[in-house]
Amino acid sequence: MGAMFPIMVDLRGKRCVVIGGGRIAERKIRSLLEAGGDQLVVVSLQHTTELERLAAIGSIRIRRREYIEEDLLDARFVFAATDNPSVNARVLNDCKKRGILVNMAEHADQGDFAVPAVVRRGDLVLSVSTSGSSPAMAIQIRKELERRYGEAYAEGIARLGALRAHVQEVEPDPESRKRLLREASLEMEERMLHSQYDFIPEEDPAEWLNRIRIAASRRHEE
């Protein structure tokens, strides 16, 4: 696919249309939901049991018919994920005409964007892409990242977020804020790496900040 620009997109309020109702379409929908997508439309005559369940609870909308160009109205992102090459080609051409970004599930190099392999740990998002050259390698690297960054990171990142908000309120000096937050990040990384049960004891942000200040002061004196 050549050089691509990595980007994180807020999907809230943006219509995403998935053409197809099989396993590939289901995986696309699952990843969109995990990323906060709330305007998801599936177009297909047949659907997996999971897609039917998601439609029943209101997570997605299903249009139970074959694809037509009007399905692209108001779409921001489109995913061509059918098992029919001619339908996927029509979706691609229609999106190009309308200036809509499209992902081609079977032939990523033909579309406008690729979907990377992703590891999510709360607010921590790690993504891997080989730009379509080797999806298998991207999946392998993702599995390595899953082992390296356990569930403890979700809680740890949330704690760091709370501390950052507190530091921004009480510490006026930008350089001091940066130094303190860097110290906290290094400490949390160490705690997460050695968390045997994916659990990190809770600590009040003010107490945590005070402890970091004391430790930093002692190191400076040494």
TrEMBL record:
Keywords: Lyase, NAD, Oxidoreductase, Porphyrin biosynthesis. It comes from the Bacteria. Residues 121-147 form the Siroheme synthase central domain. Pathway: Porphyrin-containing compound metabolism; siroheme biosynthesis; sirohydrochlorin from precorrin-2: step 1/1. GO terms for biological process: siroheme biosynthetic process. It holds the Pfam family Sirohm_synth_M. It catalyses: precorrin-2 + NAD(+) = sirohydrochlorin + NADH + 2 H(+). Its EC number is 1.3.1.76. One of its GO terms (molecular function) is ferrochelatase activity. NCBIfam families: cysG_Nterm. PANTHER family: SIROHEME BIOSYNTHESIS PROTEIN MET8 (PTHR35330). This is precorrin-2 dehydrogenase. It comes from Paenibacillus phyllosphaerae.
